Amino acid sequence: MRREVLSGLALGAILGGIGFLRTSIWSMFSDLYGPHWLFVALTVGAALVRIVLWGTLLGSMLPFILRRLGVDPATSSAPFVATLIDVTGLVIYFSVAMVILRGTLLMNIRKRASRPEVRTLLLRKRVARSNAL
User: Where are the domains of the chain?
Assistant: First the structure.
């Protein structure tokens, strides 16, 4: 298990570093990420490290877990593991984004709703929803 953790961390650090650098370099030439580009880059890098580590651990341990449960380990085929890691990877990414971006890009809904333009937009959505019913 130690080898899997170390290889997952190493690969995750490499891919996370590449994701961080890509986002950082891209923000020098574009205003795509806005003033919070550093937080976006940190989110991408940290999420990649966690997703790769999770994928490494899950991919290596799933056959042992299935054998322990009495299921044929061959059922942990590549498409099954890939789908499972993709779905959990999204959860990991959005969890990391929620922690890092809270207060910057992810404002509290009450703070956002107090701004006049957002309040007007929310009222329009409510009216459109009630008219659709």
Answer: 2-102, 109-133
Condensed to tens digits (0 to 9), the pLDDT of residues 52-107 reads 999 998 888 888 888 888 887 777 677 777 888 899 999 999 999 999 988 777 76
Hey, which bits of the chain come out as E strands? none
Alpha carbon of 87 to those of 23, 27, 49, 90: distances in Å? 23, 28, 16, 5
Q: Distance between alpha carbon 22 and the CA centroid of its chain, in Å?
A: 16
Question: If you count them, how many residues does the chain have?
Answer: 133
Tell me how far apart the alpha carbons of residues 97 and 50 are, in angstroms, rounded to a whole number: 12
Q: What is the CATH number of domain 2-102?
A: 1.10.357.20
Count CB atoms within 10 A of the CB of residue 87.
Answer: 10
**Residue 20, Cβ density class (10 Å: 0-12 exposed, 13-18 middle, ≥19 buried):** buried
